[in-house]
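Hi P.,

Sorry for the delay on this. The queue was packed all week, but I finally got your sequence through. Input first:
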Amino acid sequence: MKLYCLSSDAAKPCFVLSFKELLIMLDCGLSAHSVLNFLPLPPVPSTRLASLPTYTPPHINDPLLEGELKECCGRVFVDSVPEFCPPLDKVVDFSQLDVILISNYTCMMALPFITEETGFKGQVYATEPTLQIGRFYLEELSEWLSEGGATGEGGPGARRWKELVHLLPPPLAQAVRPRAWRRLFSAAALARSLARVRVVGYDERVDLYGALDATAVSSGFCLGSANWVLRSAHEKVAYVSGSSTLTTHPRPINQAALRGADLLVLAALTQTPAHNPDHMLGDLCVHAALTLRSGGSVLLPVYPSGVLYDLLECLSAHLEGAGLGGVPLYVISPVADASLAYSNILAEWVSGGKQARVALPEEPFPHAALARAGRLRHAKALHHLPDFRQPCVVFAGHPSLRFGAAVHLLELWASNPAHAVIFTEPDFPYVEALAPFQPLAMKAFHCPIDTSLNYSQANKLVRELRPRELALPEQYAAGGGAGRPHVGADVPTVVVKRGAAKAATVRRRAARGTLCGTLAARAVPREVAGGSGGLRAAPLAAELRVRDARVELVAPPAPARAAPLHWSSPDVEALVRALAREGGGPHATHVFCEGRPDVRQALRRALAACLPHV
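Then the structure:
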């Protein structure tokens, strides 16, 4: 059993497990940190961004580099369409993948890079909310970038800077493998990729080519999020990714199904271990209320699902209690309507409290009631809101501030100190996200809300699950300096890093096979002399076949007479008598063959005569 790591971002994992002659990909997260090196792609032309000065490295006169780099407040950016860092494609041949198992919608953004134009012929499994909300994420991203011609492989793009990256100032100089960065896939490739996904429910067993059973169990992180359990007849592997033990809107984590695994693979822990989600939510509400009271508006760069539902519920209630119930709430996204509507038909995937509201009947989330009351409005784009009122609260993407409606709003409000931008998504460092908008007069608050397991919770979970072996990314292992949080366990631990493969100590001890009907009918078991519990055995001549991970014993092409099968320990007194009959001395203690075949044959006959056989 081997585990390959194809991602450098532990929060957006991508592993490949070689198990029972199958190659199983566990998640296909897309690292988007690379987009922070690019200038924003505004939905409407920006005079400020267009007038930024061009940057040229000292002592470099390269006409091919001209116009590719621009400078803003001492920071150098690439003036081109943003690019992403997909999983490594040289370690494992994607055309040889048998299965892709997706744990949640934040870890499937690289799926088209894996399945399209790679020769992929395998199967993809995810829960229904993971597929649908993942579709919202991907379609939103695709639409934003397609407006700027930033999808697909064609069209202009800055490339020369990648050859000279070592000569550029930081942080661009520290860019990891920029030549492997790629533009977002086309809308057609996205549609083809999502069409491959097969929907599964919690606790539903999926047969993987007869070799394994895969079961998705609730992870408690977000709607439809799942941990995966892989079982063969004699081994068990648990994949824990993006899990939470907190009480929020998803169904709680199912720990019982994960216990006693031979190998536990742990990924996607919190990206903000020093920030408590409850405290951050409280701080957000306070900052928003103070900003609104002073006449300013609030911008929250968010994804179109997930924490957005909790923010709408908590912030609307807080503003109502603070006497700000008349402040309008706006959700601006190409998929806003579909996302908000879809969340209220997922009764089987939410927590018990939310399910109880459905039985009343009421919507599990309050945003439908907010919309009916006129407090919440949603639109595909800002210009679809002709009566846009301020002060207000706007939820818009993208959290990186490199594309989407949030870019336009930040350009409009950046010079006004009455307004505020509040960062809640943990995927991007907020200082780097704001870098191309400097100097910034509006207030900026960092309130990251990440409900994934923190390190203390992860250590407790590992102790309770009691796996025989633990595998985790190098970012979670000890050794990063004193005081650095890490996952520690009193079981053998396999640490994997990007581009590497590590063998697990789990060894296949046995395999389950079937006996063909012909051989079963031919066998005549007899009770074994001296056996306990009525043990019966029969000699068997068979051919072993292994095909598609299935083991089968079939009749050999030409029936052969089975030789007697000897077993157990010899009867010493019977052995002495048999040796005497073969000519051995009655008082001798050694028999010397000296290369004589007749002596070896005599010893064989003597042993066979005193051993039980069938």
